[in-house]
Write a structure and sequence with these properties.
single chain; about 70 residues; 4 helices; elongated
């Protein structure tokens, strides 16, 4: 799916930041795995994990089983 969003200039976000925010939110809601979220953000898994905290997202918001599955599929 392609999505086009117009944000007011006051938000001062670039396209890469919006992708990370969307991916982080969907990851925290359990809609995406860490790999899927990284792909949406246009980052490697490692880079996405490292940047999550900057945007207020926690790697540990998912269940232990989900985290183990993400690690196994890394």
């Amino acid at each position: 799916m392609t999505l086009q969003v117009k944000l007011p200039p006051k938000f001062n976000l670039n396209q890469a930041e919006v992708k990370v925010i969307l991916a982080g939110e969907l990851y925290e809601r359990g809609a995406l795995s860490i790999g899927q979220a990284a792909e949406i953000a246009g980052l490697t898994k490692r880079a996405f994990i490292e940047i999550m905290g900057k945007y207020g997202y926690s790697l540990f918001s998912k269940s232990v089983d989900d985290l183990l599955s993400d690690i196994k599929n890394a």
